[in-house]
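2 proteins. here.
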Amino acid sequence: MSHFVGIAFIPRESDYKVNEDYSKKDQTLENMFSMGSAVYSSYLDDLLAPYNEQDEEYCEVNPELNDEATEVYQAYINKDYETVDKVMNARIEKARGWYEKSSRYDDELKKSVALSVVEVDEKLEPYLMLSRLFNQDMTTENFDMNNSTHKELFTECFMSTDEWSVNENNQIFDHYYYNEQGYYDWYEIGGRWDNYFSEDNCNNILEDISLLKGTRMVKRLHTLDWYLTLGLKEEDIENRNLDNKVVKTFAKDDNGEFIMTTEVDDNGKEKEVRLVDEYYTTEELLDEEVEIKKYGFLSMVTEKYGWEQESTMGWFGMSEKDGMSDDDRENTERTWENLVNDRVDELLADVDENGVCKWVAVAVDYHI
């Protein structure tokens, strides 16, 4: 999973409403639902809907063969009851192993406890019921895919999705929904980027979108990718003890390949790692200021141009840029900055009769 921030442009005169009571830092498990969202806007919901990975209106069904379900159903249709028993028994034992490792929360003990033998048996009952329906000798009622109760049992025991299909060859397919234009699975206004525009505005709407083009000066330490600073401790920063703590570059050979070396970890095991060419110095990280974009965001959405992004976001906070060479990364960032400036300039030129820009910006916390 990953979170990333993007900008959506919505009309100044649209239906948006700022929630003055929203505060991510004051959010708890008890008040998170009652607190609501930092901004409400049906226009924004409609604008972002086509890029949701899970919105069925914009998804195509991708049928995926379910091998186990197909095997047991074809065996049943072909009256190969030996195979039916083999698949069902394997499925039951697999489920049993899963439930025996599962737990539930005990309200009295105020902690998670393992399922009891009785509770495991209760969980296995649907599998045993389906097994009996498949067995010609155990019941007068035999499995019928057109029987809704039987089909529900089959779904619970074998299917990965609620929607699935059977073709003329009795092959069974799970139905997965896929949106090739999907870039997130849910989003939040506020979230990790609550008060994103705090430098220029007191809420999550930026009314003067020209400010998106500004820059600011920060310590170089704050510009490093998060994974480069995982080993840093607060006391190291306070005591200015950062030399040889953050890698600046790794050594490469004449072919541009990383040079590897052997290290021994804390458990005495040897491992191959990249040879460090240069570390950042404490002075570079804590004293040297660098100019960065005031608002660094990965994507922007407009009604006219739709979703546009600097690079594709992946899991664990990584994007396409993390695998690029320095030159490619620099070119990607420069191209993106130019595109953002072009979009902002075009929107700034769209004004009402009073000369006021018709558009405002919303910071969106996307999850993928």
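next one coming up
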Amino acid sequence: MDDALLAIILQHVRELAEVQISKTESDRYKLLTPFPPVGNDFPDFKKDTLEFTDPQTDAGLATMDTIYAYDFFTGTNNLYYNYSYGIKSQDYYLSQVCKKFYGDALFTDTADDSFIANFKNKKDNFNNRFLRSTVGDLGKIDFYYTSLSPIQWNNGKIELTGNDIARLKEKALSVYASLQDIDNGYIASLTAAINAANYSKITYDFGFLDVRREWIDPQLMESDNWKFATDNEVLYGNSDADFTTNDVKLAYAQRFYVIKNYSGTLAPTPAPATPILGTAILSGFAVRDHRTTAPPIAGSGQPAGQPQVRDHRTTVRNMQLKSRLSQFNFTVPPKPADPIDPTGQFVWVNDHWERKRANSTPPDTKPADDTIYKTAAIICRILPRVPKSQTINEDKVAEPA
């Protein structure tokens, strides 16, 4: 049931995060949510590993802090496709793009002293000041020191009830209903679990952290003050036509929205109707499946069971999603066929019947580990592939990396 619970929470976190991106900045930023809810490309953060400093004066702690800093760098160095789902690129990394930018960029006629000074400062940070190496059991592995802002937790738990849960369930169902054609069995299982989920209350702790990188300024890459020596050269995707033909871009995480202690309270089962005397208990009765098809979105004009959702997919995106699903080899074990009591007075437990407890309220689901922060959404900065400018000033050429 964690998959269904997370799917509902993720839709709510997305709503909370969407207000952080203004309409005027929508061409520079992208809000991504995990796909799928469990086993996705987003990193989970452990509380202890986020508590590192640089430099660390104690020799013993310095080794551990270096490892934690390396782990944080590797968890935030990924590039994601600019789709609503978080799909990680397997071919490109932020540091890789920066290395090419600082090494091969040429200044144009429009490059003023301020741009040149900022470029050289960030280049020095990248090549020297924030270049680190791991020690100890990991051996010597170079990385770029990346830190984080203190996590800002919401004052009090986020609590969802009633209509909010119903609305978010419908939203989650609509999202996954559009992906049936790439399903390997998991999507169908997930939508069935979401549909069957019956929560009276959902709670979770909500916070966010910003990633601090002193070795990159995205405004430099977006500027028209530089270009490559070769007209067709780009920051990434050199030999991949999909980036241009399908307007695909890559983005890197600037803010992580995280949750912890998430749990749901199951709604009480409605009291069963009084059975007719002499009704058989164990056979001969049909049971109605309560897992109904998702209702239509209001105003869609679609009949019940055929929700209409905004289709913003491309062929490339579908290929990425299908590949992502295949990596996890999701399988849902079939549930054993238990004997059915149509009277509702008994439940089958393992290998015997038990009378239902009167007026029982199901307990909350077990809260998630308080020391693990699960990423529920990220705000990414979209990277350009090429600069805007086309002219080169040979007198102002960036120094080679």
